Amino acid sequence: MKTLTALTMAASLALGAGIASAQQGVSKDEIRVGSIQDLSGPLAGYGKQARNGMQLRVDEINEQGGVNGRKLTLFVEDSGYDPKKAVLAAQKLVNQEKIFIMAGHIGTAQNMAAMPVQFEKNVINFFPITAAREMYEPFHKLKYSFAATYYDQVRHALPKMIKDKGAKKICTIYQDDDFGLEVQRGAEAGVKAAGMEIAEKTSFKRGATDFSSQVAKMKASGCDLVVLGTIIRETIGTIGEARKTGFNPTFLGTSAAYTDLIHKLGGKPMDGMYATMTVQNPYTDEQSQPLRFWANKYKTKFNEDPTVFSVYGYSIIDSFIKVAQKAGPNLTTESFIKVMDSMTFEPDMFGAAKSTYTATKRLGNDQSRLSQIVDGKWKVISDYVTP
């Protein structure tokens, strides 16, 4: 009888321990963080930089003893910028690696494909690297977004740019997917606010490399301002083709095209291009001392200059750490959400605007500002525009 009681007590203790550690991705000494990046497709430049930025912050916090005594482990899977592969990557991270949270997943269509896999297992989609409205709408308790949307970026910047440039005919070129359509909708709203209509809209399939027919259409329409629903090579391809044919409108991109890769790969023809942005590119030679120190630390570790996507990765993990620390030793999805729903992130050394979250407000910041490529470098040319 005594033995039976001892066994019952042992079973009860084991069950209690099981309940205490029932939170997926959190153990006594580890928090498992997952991310899906494009490491082999058209956005591999962005994906590798975001991964490096994340790893830098993970290594820093682990050297300092971790979050409430727990080390972070970062698991990164490659989507190749393909929504189908993003689903497989999410399944692996959620079901095999048993991650606590998905952080900084890159790409609009990829996130939308992967989120159902995560949500089924109560895994938060934290600060995806895309500025699509679907990252916080419709409301879901597991969605948190940090970037002013492509829609808002364009609809706020466009009326002012039309006025400043005296533009008469507005054209759009956009990627035929969730990302491109968000930019297109923002352009339509911005043009409408300026009392105009879009003169020519043209699209391309994801992965396209030839933009001659689209550029010819816009040139034939006499457009003097072109909104770009493009990312890296489509931006370079479109502007490069336009310059070659003597078509020189004002080009306005979004934060998706705000990267040093545009001027590094596209060269002189990219000069003059505008883009909306939410944090600035961290050039190693002309920033504030803290940013210069950070940029050189990054360069020492990865043997390459950091970019704005390195900043995204670093800042996303930094934000996660702040919330996880506040949630305390008993870190669960619920305790994390409770902290996030009253969280404020102050402006940082990277030039981000202040962002706040509540139980019903899951986009932290809806402000963006303008930069322009001047002499082969992005230069900030406006303050944040408050909607």
Q: What does the radius of gyration come to?
A: 23 Å
Tell me the β content.
Answer: 15-25%
| Class derived from helix and strand content | alpha/beta
Query: Count of helices?
Result: 12
What string, H for helix and E for strand, traces the elements in order? HEHEHEHEEHEHEHEHEHEHHHEEEE
Mean pLDDT: 93
Distance between the termini: 72 Å
Spatial ordering of strands, largest sheet: 7-6-8-9-10-13-14
SSE layout:
Blueprint: H1 2-20, E1 30-37, H2 44-63, E2 71-78, H3 83-96, E3 101-103, H4 108-120, E4 124-126, E5 143-144, H5 150-165, E6 170-175, H6 178-193, E7 198-204, H7 212-220, E8 225-229, H8 233-244, E9 250-253, H9 260-266, E10 274-277, H10 289-302, H11 308-327, H12 333-340, E11 344-345, E12 355-356, E13 369-374, E14 377-380
Parallel strand pairs: 1-2, 1-3, 3-4, 4-5, 6-7, 6-8, 8-9, 9-10
Antiparallel strand pairs: 10-13, 11-12, 13-14
Helix pairs in contact: 2-11, 3-4, 5-6, 8-9, 11-12
Account of the 3D structure:
Mean pLDDT is 93; it is low at 1-20. The radius of gyration is 23 Å and the shape is globular. The longest helix is centred in the N-terminal third of the chain and has 20 residues, at 44-63. The N and C termini lie far apart (72 Å). With 387 residues, it is an alpha/beta fold. The chain contains twelve helices and 14 strands. The strands form three sheets. It has a seven-stranded mixed beta sheet with strand order 7-6-8-9-10-13-14, with helices on both faces.
